[in-house]
Amino acid sequence: MSKRSSSSDVFDQLRDAQSDAAELTEPSADADQVEVDQAAATDPVASVSKRRIALSVVVCALLFTLLCAGLGYLGWREYQRHQLDAAGAAALQAANDYAVVLTTLDAKNIDDNYRKSLDGATGEFKDAYSQGANQLRQVLIDNKASGTGVVVSSAVKSVSPEQVEVLLFVDQSITNAQNPSPRIDRNRIDMTMQKVDGRWLASKVEIL
Fold first, then answer.
1. Average pLDDT of span 180-190
2. What burial class does residue 92 get, using C-beta atoms within 10 Å of its C-beta: 0-12 exposed, 13-18 middle, 19+ buried?
3. How far apart are the first and last CA of the chain?
4. Domain 88-207 belongs to what topology?
5. pLDDT tens-place string over residues 122-158
6. Separation between Cα atoms, residue 97 and residue 44, nearest integer Å
7. What is the pLDDT of residue 57?
8. CA pair distance 42, 58, nearest whole angstrom
9. Does an H or E element contain 152, and which?
10. Which residues pair with 174 in a beta bridge?
11. pTM, full prediction
């Protein structure tokens, strides 16, 4: 073999080695395409995840708002019910006391009885009672009339914060100069109580 031929073979092998090294070091087109495909696949997933997180936040905020609104409504209803219960209880007690005042009288203290009755009344009933009391005053004195009332039972018929209607069953023991032995009158009274300056006063009294 000649020296020239050997040299040519060496140079050819050297070129072939360099070419192979270049192929190993340069990124292939297939690898670039894989990276592009992976990036394209990752972006939609990230976008969907962000949308889900945002939707979850909105749903949680909405549920929290609804919860707060529901609790506020229940609290308001409970407060309103408490107000009505308190109004009904106060008006019922005032009606019981006033029914005793109306049905208890003594000809010897008739003016004091009228004064207490007028003090617990308001509106049209107060005006009507005042006129009727003036007409009956002398009759009661002349007949030495007296009466004692007892509330047997009572209940609230309707209630609002400022007005309560009460139904009462009242027994009244009555005596006078002609009938000294007590006579019992059983009365059913429908009484409307009105709240005036913090007091529950009778605005309507109807004997049924």
1. 89
2. buried
3. 146
4. Nuclear Transport Factor 2; Chain: A, (3.10.450)
5. 999 999 888 887 778 888 888 888 899 999 999 999 9
6. 79
7. 75
8. 25
9. strand 146-159
10. 147, 183
11. 0.63
